[in-house]
Amino acid sequence: MIPVTDDIALDERDIEESFIRASGPGGQNVNKVASAVQLRFNLRGSRPLSEAVQARLERLAGQRVSNEGVLVITAQRFRSQERNRADALDRLVALVRRAATAPRPRRRTRPSAAARERRLAAKARRSRLKQQRGGFPQE
To answer: Which CATH number fits the domain 2-100, given the four candidates 3.30.160.20, 1.10.238.10, 3.40.50.970, 3.40.190.10?
Structure first.
């Protein structure tokens, strides 16, 4: 189990890793070694995640979630496969941690009377300025 928060721990069996060739710098090593990691996490099949967390995670992940509900994270920042594996896992845990915290509900507020007065005064000033811009008289 991979701990995410006090309440949530991800099961390693829900995570699938595959190794692919990375792009970018690295010399001949890039052409020979599959050092990039493609981590796949089945959102909809994960038991420790509640419906609300799954929905927030899907919204946060955006394009990285497939139509089947599989989150795909590709890590190729480092030259070694081990560091890329750790990077992909860290990114998954950070994403789930962000989704685990519910957003605070927005409280409706109203502008103060002074703010309304300032807004109306600014509009009146602007209106007077534009009215003073007279065009040339037509002949």
So the answer is: 3.30.160.20
Task: Report pLDDT digits (tens) over 9-34.
Answer: 676 667 778 787 777 666 666 667 77
Domain boundaries, the chain: 2-100
- Mean pLDDT, to the nearest integer, of 55-62? 80
Residue with tokens 């394009």: 63
What is the pTM assigned to this prediction? 0.62
* CA separation for the pair 99, 58 (Å, rounded): 9
Instruction: Classify the C-alpha dihedral 44-50-52-53 as positive or negative.
Output: negative
